[in-house]
From TrEMBL:
Region (Disordered): 15-38
Residue spans crossing the bilayer: 51-70
Protein name: Cytochrome c oxidase subunit 8, mitochondrial
Pfam families: COX7C
Length: 76
């Protein structure tokens, strides 16, 4: 009985809270642009994007293997 009263009281308290949001003010200097490709630090629409992308991936993937080979053959 007591638990039911507490549950009802908490339900009513939660229902009384007014959750609201405000629209972002686009004139604010702290608001960043929104939309597709606006949250990444590069532009995938440039002419040489594919070359730079795959070059970056190749270097990142092959660097550990190249370092391992260099460390293995360093003292020989």
């Amino acid at each position: 009985m007591l638990a039911r009263q507490i549950a009802q009281r908490n339900a009513f308290a939660a229902a009384r809270r007014n959750f609201s949001t405000t629209r972002p003010q686009f004139s604010s200097p702290y608001h960043y642009p929104e939309g597709p490709r606006s949250n990444i630090p590069f532009n995938p629409l440039t002419k040489y994007f594919a070359l730079r992308y795959w070059g970056f991936m190749f270097v990142g993937f092959s660097a550990p293997f190249g370092i391992a080979v260099w460390q293995t053959n360093k003292n020989q």
